[in-house]
Amino acid sequence: MKNSLKCLVVVSAILLSACSSMGGGGEDKFSASYVQSHIVEGKTTKAQVQQLYGVPDDNQKSSNGTTWIYFKNADYSSVSSLAGYIPGAGAVSSALGMANTASSASSTASKLSDKSNGNTEIHGDRLYITFNRSDIVDYWSIH
């Protein structure tokens, strides 16, 4: 019982950390307008990007530099998967899975609404930020 309580505390801490890294204020950090206003090619540093988006979910290295990859709902998915391995945390895992599904459904509904209203703002589920050898943003793309 004591171990289950410790595990639940750890999962709760991870969940709160995941929620806080998603950002607040209702801004979509995966919209072209947000990225354009916060990431300046040739100026923004890796440290500044990490301050905005946190640690990247994945990264790639090439002869030209490094690319950091961020997935919109990665925090929900990661914590949900981790919680599935903790005894007694099945309800937390299920709740996180439902939150991820709800977030995806909301994103799809928003895209359909934008399309019907003629809104051409670009929103994505993945953000790629490529840095040059000096760790300055070279370019970014949203998918």
Helix/strand-derived category reads: alpha+beta
Amino-to-carboxy terminus distance:
44 Å
Q: How many DSSP E strands?
A: 4
Helical content, roughly? 40-55%
What does the overall shape look like?
globular
Q: Tell me the series of helices and strands, N- to C-terminal.
A: HHHEEHHEE
Uncertain stretches: 16-24, 76-80
Largest sheet: 4 strands, antiparallel
Tally the helices: 5
Give the strand order of the largest sheet, numbering strands 1, 2, ... along the chain: 1-2-3-4
Radius of gyration, Cα only, in angstroms? Answer: 17 Å
The overall pLDDT, averaged over residues, is 74
- SS strand fraction: 15-25%
How are the secondary structure elements laid out?
Layout: H1 2-21, H2 32-38, H3 46-53, E1 58-62, E2 65-71, H4 74-83, H5 90-117, E3 126-131, E4 137-142
Antiparallel strand pairs: 1-2, 2-3, 3-4
Signal peptide: 1-23
Protein name: Lipoprotein SmpA/OmlA domain-containing protein
Keywords: Signal
